[in-house]
Amino acid sequence: MLKISRLTDYGLLATIYLARKQGETISAREIAEFYHLPIPTVTKVLKTLHQGGVIASHRGVSGGYSFEGDPEMFTLGQVLELLEGP
After folding, report:
1. Nearest C-alpha neighbor of 79 from the set 2, 34, 13, 3
2. Is 55 helix (H, G, I), strand (E, B) or coil?
3. Tell me: domain 6-78, CATH 2.40.240.10, correct?
């Protein structure tokens, strides 16, 4: 049985949410409210996903995050490795 951390769980939820809303810029607050998660924790995992090249970050008043590229190009294993480490 695979045991993942809470941060990884939140990261997977955020990745799925952004992949479903591909092409849209989504705020950390929107993701946190949708899943009833703490905003600081969601922001932390979004930063990790951005640094790993999975999502793009957009600054400014209407900024937020968007899925980078084709969602089918990323495997669950790649996202897990990014969030949990090798």
Report:
1. 13
2. strand
3. no
